[in-house]
Specification:
Shape: globular
Number of strands: 11
Distance between the termini: 40 Å
Number of helices: 0
Structural class: mainly beta
Amino acid sequence: QVQLVESGGGVVQAGGSLRLSCAASGRTIFSYYMGWFRQAPGKEREFVSAITWADQRTYYANSVKGRFAISRDNAKNTAYLQMNSLKPEDTAVYYCAALRKGNVYHTQDYNYWGQGTQVTVSS
């Protein structure tokens, strides 16, 4: 069993930055990919970024590449999403998720989800 708790969301002006955190717990967390997804009102949940625990391989959606950076702190069992140069279209609920096996880009392959944290970017 894996538990995930996100934090760090808020309201920011366009061009600003936020850092999201995902605190993970569970005996086998090191065997999971950690991913970030987002869901805007009226839209489907979409992939944002992912990272492996073991070798720090990272994955990004084209829409955030160069602006967002995913990282993790093994000692704290925490993954982070640093979001820079935020745009109004980044406004969404952001979810942290854990994947044991599958495609990191596919929402349906993830095994565990956090409760989500709201990010609002004003123009």
